[in-house]
Design a protein that fits this description.
With 274 residues, the chain is α+β, with helices and mostly antiparallel strands. The chain has 2 domains: 5-134, Alpha-Beta Plaits (2-Layer Sandwich); 138-250, Alpha-Beta Plaits (2-Layer Sandwich), CATH 3.30.70.970. The protein contains 8 helices and 10 strands. It has helices at residues 44-48, 54-76, 103-113, 129-134, 138-155, 175-187, 218-233, 250-269; strands spanning 5-11, 16-22, 36-43, 79-85, 89-96, 118-124, 164-172, 191-192, 206-214, 237-244. The strands form 2 sheets. The chain has a 6-stranded antiparallel sheet. Helix 5 (138-155) packs antiparallel against helix 7.
Length: 274
């Protein structure tokens, strides 16, 4: 089984959840020998009050997550499948063999590795129903894709908070559906990009490219994708993705320009042909 981690947000009637799930088990679940669900929950109020900064808090929680996964997998071969993060708690989920988990061993490990309390419970879940609950639906899968794209932009030095033209690709089954959606989109502040061609799909032969001047922060992109997904679903359409030009941060621009300048200088200094 290959790891295939995805991150997305899910809104319920009572709270906002940030979910990390390993979709790599999707085609294999349920694993016959792993019939029990283990949950470990941290109260974030207690941890947050002792952390000097948000960065320190994140680092502390990441270290705990890594240590817990290593201990659980080596001690009783637990399968780490996902995590739920809310404003008040952080929950880690594993599947284990029946009766493999030991509360006493967990207590001893916690006393050695973590200064705060953590709640744990084990329950029967042979069908892996909770794992399927963690898996993203169609819209949430788009959120996973958004997170991957934005992470890649940040990694390349993009200033995601800087507004730019963000393009969205929509596909429709019928020309009339596209026309109706186009009229609504214009009232919502989107620009119709008639000059930007896009490939049609056999099942959705009527494409439409739209744009909006936005930043590409995750919350912003998810909001746009959510409203567009809802609109085109009502018009027999399909959301086909988004894209934008990069806006480099100042330090990234400096490094890029410095490399160009250095390259040009070295080229002038090279002996060349004789």
């Amino acid at each position: 089984m290959a790891d295939e981690w995805g991150f997305y947000e899910r809104l319920t009637e009572s709270e906002q959840m940030r979910i990390l799930v390993n979709s790599g088990y999707k085609t294999e679940a349920p694993l016959t020998d792993y019939s029990e669900l283990l949950s470990v929950t941290l109260n974030l109020y207690m941890v947050r009050n002792t952390s000097k900064s948000k960065k320190a808090l994140i680092m502390q929680l990441e270290q705990y997550e890594s240590k817990l996964e290593k201990w659980a997998s080596s001690t009783f071969q637990a399968k780490y499948v996902g995590r739920i993060n809310t404003a008040t708690r952080l929950e880690f989920y594993y599947y284990t063999r029946k009766d493999a988990f030991s509360s006493e061993k967990f207590k001893q490990w916690m006393e050695a590795e973590w200064e705060f309390r953590a709640q744990n419970y084990v329950k029967e879940d042979a069908e892996w129903s909770f794992y399927h609950y963690l898996l993203p639906n169609g819209l949430e899968q788009l959120y996973v894709h958004n997170a991957h794209m934005i992470y890649a932009l940040i990694h390349k030095g993009d200033n995601i908070g800087q507004p730019r033209n963000v393009y969205h690709w929509l596909l429709f089954r019928e020309a009339k559906d596209r026309q109706e959606a186009q009229s609504v989109l214009q009232t919502m502040g989107y620009k119709i990009e008639k000059e930007r061609a896009t490939e049609a799909d056999a099942s959705y032969p009527f494409p439409l490219v739209i744009s909006r001047f936005d930043d590409v922060k995750l919350d912003t992109v998810n909001k746009r994708v959510r409203e567009l997904h809802g609109l085109i679903t009502d018009h027999n359409g399909r959301y086909d993705g988004w894209g934008s030009s990069m806006k480099l941060t100042n330090i990234k621009k400096f490094r890029t320009n410095f490399r160009k300048l250095l390259g040009a200088t070295l080229k002038r200094l090279s002996p060349g042909r004789r």
